[in-house]
Amino acid sequence: MCTSPRSRAASNSGLSGRIASHFREGRVLVAGDAAHLMPVWMGQGWNSGMRDATNLSWKLASVLSGQADDGILDSYESERRDHAKAMIDLSMTLGNVIKPTNRVVFGARDVASRVLNLSPQVKDYFADMKFKPMPFYAEGVVVEPDTLRSGRQERTRRSRFMTVRNAVSKVTPVGTQFIQPRVRTADVHEARLDDVVGPWWTVAAWGNDPARLFTPQEREQLRHIGAQLVCFTSESQRAWAQDNLADPETLVVGCVDGALKSWFDTRAMGVVFLRPDRFVAAACLAQEAGKALASLRTAMHATPVAPGAVADSAEVAGDATHAGAATPSLEVVA
Question: What is the pTM of this model?
Answer without folding.
Answer: 0.81
